[in-house]
Every structure is written in structure tokens, then in C-alpha cells.
Design brief:
The complex is a heterodimer of chains A (about 300) and B (about 425).
Chain A: H1 2-25, E1 40-44, E2 59-63, E3 66-73, E4 79-86, E5 91-98, E6 100-106, E7 112-120, E8 129-137, E9 143-144, E10 151-154, E11 157-158, E12 165-171, E13 177-184, E14 187-194, E15 199-205, E16 208-212, E17 218-224, E18 233-239, E19 244-247, E20 259-262, E21 265-270, E22 274-279, E23 287-290, E24 294-299
Chain B: H1 2-11, H2 26-56, H3 61-89, H4 92-109, H5 115-142, H6 149-177, H7 182-203, H8 226-230, H9 236-250, H10 255-265, H11 276-298, H12 301-319, H13 324-347, H14 356-385, H15 387-408
Classes of the chains: A mainly beta (about 300), B mainly alpha (about 425).
Chain lengths: ~300, ~425
């Protein structure tokens, strides 16, 4: 009797489970339309596609003659596919690696591409997440899957440490110089890197997710202003000539690699997610740019 | 004749043989089935939760990490409360069932994608897990002969681990089938969790005494007071086991850190990182029963101490490094198989039956608190000195702790 009752209840539960799964699998996929990456602002929209295209990306960035689309691939273990596209949406390169999408950048010319993924374990991982950053030279096909192999100079001294972690690369116009965040010993630093020499040296502490301005003179970054997880970051802009920082008018915590709309304005996502913009000189006030959107980038 | 004799022994608190003559009681198999099914349900959620929060909802990973750590710490008190409540009302099955129900229901909370609902759901899941653990382990001891406790816990933990290994596979199969529909994972997880609860209600007998309806004449109307449960801390034999478990918890690096160090030192491709815990779990699964039986035969102290020696070996294998990830995961799996259920088998018989759940809760809380502090200390050491010195320090601490535990437990069996 008991066995029968449990079996019967089990059948009902199985029917619910299967029914819901089939229903979820049958949800209509977003409509696909051919297209190109038009000049202007692109964001990831609520249905997971990049505005103005049919691309399904978790993180997207367009610059020069190329774009990169990071898409999470559900599976065990979780993987990410980075697809480098031409402006006509033809696929130029495709790289697959472990982790889940976090940041993506293309150099101003479109030649250099970089991405950062989170590598998460599972319930057993006490410290949660760590990051992996890769760089691809689309002209030569040279691929660095994990840039932790770079020679790092901390305050001028060669630094070896097993806990070194890089994220958020941004490229200069020469396709060789770049900026990124490095974390080691519990602190974060802004580094200036050299692709050809494969070195990176720290410029200052406490600067994450750098984004180089189109004119190459300033870096937008998020600075940690509070310990812990409640509103820890504020957007700042660093003048590379003087190394002076300017806090921006956005007072909410921004956990994003900001994108320059032009030499005076920055765009970034806030939880919601929504994309906002704010003047890059500390003046003015934040303005909503796109609701239900994330991953902004400005295609020239 | 046999039945009567067996019944009499059960009433005196020491059933030599489980009803029916099997050496592992039906109740243990039933509890193992409940744990297996429940672990499929809960591990499918934990496997996809970080992805869901970060990719699905755009939460920062930092927020998730803190959320998770906070709740893990808070369950220590809940565990004590659950254990004591089960003793007090002599309703082990009811208290455990409440915990299972709470965890199953929490899956539906994940469907509401607001941060407040998510926090509540995650908290409810952890509270449910905290509530049920001690009454469940107490039921295992109350339905098993004392000299077969190691085997009984071995069987239970092997079934439990099987579920934990299947969970992520089910979850990622579902994500693949539905092209990334996290809600389907949560709904299926709820259904599986509900099935586990039904199995508990239908097939798990309550503790002998109040739960089964027959009260022995001498038993008081209600169970032990909170004071008498807490007084166990001072009980001579039990105090030593509690002290040793807490001390060893305090010098054991948490799994997550070990996997991070392992990945880094042995340069394992990040794509395979999530597979590392499965390696340990597979070893645990295979060795839980043999090591439990060994503990029954030669006493539980030796396997418990040797298990921690295996953990020390795992640190050494990472540091040297020798043997590659396989050796490290093998030693880590042995550590779990020789210490997890074995600790319950070591401590259980030292607690009077009517205070069993509360006593086991104390033991688990002591160990968990030790581990929580250990992870804080190890994190700080890693930050201050770097990874390798931190691991060397952890190995030294474990070696010293192990020596101390061997002395503290010199009379234990």
C-alpha cells in the first residue's frame, strides 16, 4: 500500500518534471535576422541577443572592423565560446575554453581581441570564483589562453606568485600596448602591458576593469571604495599623463568594464540590468541609455 | 524466540542485529535512499546556481561568495536546534522531515528572480540542511547495532555521495536539453526533493520510543532539557571526541581551497576544475563501506586518525608535487571515507540514546565551526604569504593537530 502510494506520487512528480522541461525546451527561440554590425551603440538586450543583430551573446564588444561575442555553453563543465566576427557578421575565429563569460574587448583597429571568464567550481569551492583572461591576435592567429604566463613587474620588481589573476584587458591603438587589472596578495593593480615583450608593469593600486579612451589619454576604471560586497565600487577616470584620478558623477556601485561612447562620455551597466551613461570629467549626472540591457559597446 | 531476544536488546538500547537479521537495517537503507534522492535535488541546484546568478541575473560573483559563506556559518546554530528539538520531543523523523521539506520548497523560491527571494531561498535550503542532519544521523545510530555503526554510516554516506555525484550531471543534461532554461532545473529539483520527502514519510521508521508509539515505562514524558544536552560537552568520553573533532576541523583546509591549490600547482586546465570534486567523491563512494567495516572491526579511532593522515598526504602530494591530481584526489577521498561517517560512529555510542541527536549535532557543529575558522585563517595566510607557504603552514598545523588528537583520543574506540 505504502509502496503503491509512493510510486503513484512519484509518477505524478515525474510527469510535472517532464512536462515542465518539455515546455521549457519548446519556448520559441528569438527570431533570427541576417544583418551587419551597424555603427552606433550596441547592447545585450533582454532576450540575450545583441541589439540590431541576431547574435546571442552574454558579452559583446565591437571596434574597428571586428566584434567579439562571448556565449556561455551549458554543459559539464561549463564552457564559453568566443566568436570573432567581421562587421558583416561572418565568423573569423572561434575559440572555446572553460569558464563563463565576464568581459570582452577588441582593439581600436579590430586586430586584437581579449576576453575574461569566471572559472567557478561548484558547491565545494569556498572562495567562489577566479578569473582567466585570454588574448587573440586575429592577424597572426596567435592565441594566449591564460595570460598569467606574462612577466609581471610589481612596483618595478619582478613578481612571482601563484595567486596572480588578470582581468579586463583594454588595447591601445598600436595593437601592442594594453592595460588590465591584476590581483595578487589580496590587492588589485592597474597594469600596462606590452604584447611583443610579453611584460606587464603596475601603474597604480586599486583600479579594476580599465577602459582606454578613444584618444588614448585616459582610462576609465572601477575603484574599490568599500570593503565587502555592498556597493564596493565607484567609477573613476585616470589621466595617464598625470596619473590623477577623477571620480565620476555616478555614485552607485558599478561592476562593469565601462565603454567610451566618445571622448567625453562613458556607458556602463548597472544591476537590473540597465545601461547608463555619464560624462567622463566628473560633471553632470548619470542618464539611462537603455533599459533591460547590458554589455554596451560603441561601434565606429 | 529470535524475535523476542532481538526485541529485548533493542529496548535496552543495543540492538545486536537489525530486525530481519540483516546487518544493515532497513531504516538505514531507507534513510540512504532519502539522502540519495535529496542530494540529486540539492546538488543539481548548487551546480548551476553560480551560473544562474552571474549569467542569468547579472549578480556579481563577489556578492554570491559572501552570501554563500554567511549562510554556511549560520547553519551551525540551526543544527544544534534541530538536534535538540528531535531529542526533546522524541520526534526525529518529524524534525528531519521538516528539514527535507524546507529544502525542497526552497527550489520554488529560486524561480522568483529577485535578490530578496533568492537570498531567502538559499537561506531556507541551508536551514533545512542544518535542521535535518543531526536527527537523521541519530536515527541511523538508533536503528543500528553499535558494533555495526561504521558499516551503517558507510552505507548511508555511499548512497548520499552517489546522489551528490548524479545531481550536477542531471542539471547540466537538463540545461542542454532546454537550451539553458534554469527554471526547468529548479522545478525538476523540486520534484525530486518532494520524492525524497515522500520516501522518508513512507519508509523511514521513527526512533524507537515515542516515534513508534511504544513508550518504555521508565521514560519521562518529554525529552532531555537543553541544559542536559549542553552538559554533554562535559561528559568524559564524549568531551574528548568533541575536542578532537573540533581541533582537527580547525587544522583542515576546506575542499575549495585544496582544489584551487591543486589546480594551480599541477597546472590543470580550468575546464576540468569542476570535475575535481567528482574525483574525491568517487573515491569516497567506493571506500565508505569498506572503511566503515574496518572501523567496526578495529575500532573507529585508528581509521579516523589515519584518514586525517591521508589529508596530510594530500597536502604533501600537492606540495612536492608527486603523483599528479589522481593521487591527491585518491588521498582526499580516503580522508572523507575514513573520517566523515566514522566520526558519527565514534561519537554516537558515547551519547545516551535520548540525547543522541543533540549530541551528534554538537559534534557536527564543533567540526563545522573548526572548519569555518580554518578557511578564514587559510584565506588570510594565503593573502599574506602566498599560496605555497600557506599550504606548508596548513600541513604543519595538521601534523601537530593530528598528534594532539591521537593523545586526546588515546582511550577512544
Amino acid at each position: 500500500m505504502k509502496v503503491m502510494a509512493v510510486v503513484a506520487a512519484g509518477v505524478v512528480l515525474a510527469a510535472v518534471a517532464v512536462g515542465y522541461t518539455v515546455h521549457a525546451a519548446d519556448r520559441p527561440a528569438p527570431e533570427t535576422a541576417p544583418g551587419a554590425i551597424a555603427p552606433g551603440l550596441h547592447v545585450r538586450t533582454a532576450d540575450g541577443t545583441v541589439s540590431g543583430t541576431s547574435l546571442s551573446c552574454h558579452r559583446f564588444y565591437a571596434a574597428g572592423d571586428a566584434a567579439v561575442c562571448l556565449a556561455a555553453k551549458p554543459g559539464f563543465p561549463p564552457k564559453t565560446t568566443a566568436t570573432v566576427l567581421g562587421r558583416d557578421l561572418t565568423t573569423r575565429h572561434e575559440v572555446e575554453f572553460g569558464g563563463t563569460p565576464n568581459r570582452a574587448r577588441v582593439s581600436p583597429s579590430g586586430r586584437m581581441v581579449s576576453w575574461t571568464v569566471f572559472v567557478s567550481g561548484d558547491s565545494y569551492t569556498a572562495s567562489g570564483f577566479s578569473t582567466r583572461t585570454g588574448i587573440l591576435d586575429t592577424r597572426t592567429g596567435y592565441l594566449v589562453k591564460n595570460m598569467e604566463s606574462i612577466q609581471l613587474y610589481l612596483d618595478g620588481r619582478r613578481h612571482h606568485a601563484p595567486d596572480v589573476n588578470f582581468w579586463g584587458v583594454t588595447f591601445a591603438a598600436d595593437d601592442n600596448r594594453f592595460y588590465a587589472t591584476v590581483a595578487t596578495g589580496g590587492r588589485t593593480y592597474l597594469v600596462e602591458g606590452d604584447m611583443a615583450a610579453w611584460t606587464a608593469r603596475t601603474l597604480r593600486a586599486n583600479a579594476e576593469c580599465p577602459s582606454l579612451s578613444p584618444d588614448g589619454t585616459r582610462i576609465a576604471f572601477k575603484k574599490r571604495v568599500l570593503p565587502g560586497a555592498d556597493d564596493p565600487w565607484r567609477l573613476h577616470v585616470l589621466d595617464l599623463a598625470t596619473l590623477r584620478e577623477t571620480p565620476l558623477a555616478e555614485t552607485r556601485s558599478v561592476d562593469d568594464q565601462a565603454a567610451w561612447l566618445d571622448d567625453r562620455t562613458l556607458a556602463y551597466a548597472l544591476p537590473g540590468p540597465d545601461v547608463w551613461k555619464v560624462p567622463a570629467d566628473g560633471s553632470g549626472a548619470p542618464e539611462l541609455l537603455a533599459a533591460d540591457a547590458s554589455s554596451p559597446s560603441m561601434a565606429p | 524466540m529470535y524475535l523476542a531476544a532481538s526485541r529485548a536488546r533493542q529496548d535496552t538500547g543495543d540492538p545486536a542485529t537489525a530486525p530481519g537479521g540483516r546487518r544493515v537495517a532497513g531504516a538505514v537503507i531507507a534513510l540512504g535512499s532519502v539522502s540519495l534522492v535529496t542530494d540529486v535535488s540539492s546538488e543539481m541546484v548548487t551546480a548551476v546556481l553560480p551560473l544562474y546568478l552571474v549569467i542569468g541575473l547579472g549578480l556579481s560573483p563577489l556578492q554570491f561568495g559572501l552570501l554563500d559563506g554567511l549562510y554556511n556559518g549560520a547553519t551551525a546554530l540551526v543544527r544544534l536546534a534541530g538536534g535538540h528539538a528531535a531529542d526533546r520531543w522524541r520526534r526525529h523523523k518529524l524534525v528531519a522531515g521538516t528539514g527535507y521539506a524546507l529544502s525542497a520548497l526552497s527550489r520554488l523560491g529560486l524561480l522568483a528572480a529577485t535578490p530578496a527571494a533568492l537570498s531567502t531561498a538559499i537561506a531556507a535550503d541551508r536551514v533545512g540542511k542544518g535542521i535535518r542532519t543531526a536527527p537523521r544521523d541519530a536515527l541511523i545510530t538508533l536503528h543500528s547495532a553499535e558494533h555495526h555503526l561504521g558499516r551503517a554510516f558507510g552505507v548511508h554516506r555511499a548512497m548520499d555521495t552517489t546522489g551528490a555525484m548524479l545531481g550536477p550531471l542531471v542539471a547540466f543534461a537538463l540545461l542542454w536539453l532546454t537550451a539553458g532554461a534554469y527554471d526547468a532545473v529548479f522545478v525538476v529539483s523540486f520534484c525530486i526533493g518532494a520524492l525524497g520527502l515522500l520516501i522518508l514519510i513512507a519508509f523511514v521508521p521513527g526512533a524507537a520510543g515515542r516515534d513508534t508509539g511504544s513508550t518504555s515505562p521508565a521514560a519521562p514524558r518529554s525529552g532531555p532539557s537543553l541544559r542536559s544536552t549542553l552538559a554533554l560537552v562535559g561528559a568524559p568520553g564524549f568531551r574528548r571526541v568533541l575536542l578532537a573533532a573540533t581541533l582537527l576541523g580547525l587544522v583542515s583546509v576546506t575542499d575549495g581551497f585544496l582544489y584551487l591549490v591543486l589546480q594551480d600547482r599541477l597546472d590543470i586546465d580550468t575546464a576540468y576544475f569542476p570535475l575535481l570534486p567528482l574525483g574525491s567523491a568517487a573515491v569516497y563512494l567506493v571506500l565508505a563501506v569498506p572503511l566503515g567495516r574496518l572501523a567496526d572491526r578495529i575500532g573507529r579511532r585508528t581509521p579516523f586518525l589515519l584518514g586525517h593522515l591521508a589529508l596530510l598526504g594530500a597536502y604533501a602530494a600537492v606540495l612536492v608535487p608527486v603523483g599528479g591530481p589522481v593521487l591527491v584526489l585518491l588521498l582526499h577521498g580516503i580522508y572523507y571515507a575514513a573520517t566523515d561517517g566514522v566520526l558519527m560512529a565514534l561519537g554516537g555510542p558515547l551519547v545516551p540514546r535520548e540525547r543522541r541527536a543533540g549530541g551528534l549535532a554538537l559534534l557536527q557543529t564543533g567540526q563545522a565551526t573548526g572548519r569555518l575558522l580554518a578557511s578564514v585563517l587559510f584565506g588570510a595566510a594565503w593573502t599574506a604569504w602566498g599560496m605555497t607557504p600557506a599550504l606548508v603552514a596548513a600541513a604543519c598545523a595538521l601534523a601537530v593537530g593530528l598528534g594532539a588528537a591521537a593523545v586526546i583520543l588515546r582511550d577512544a574506540r
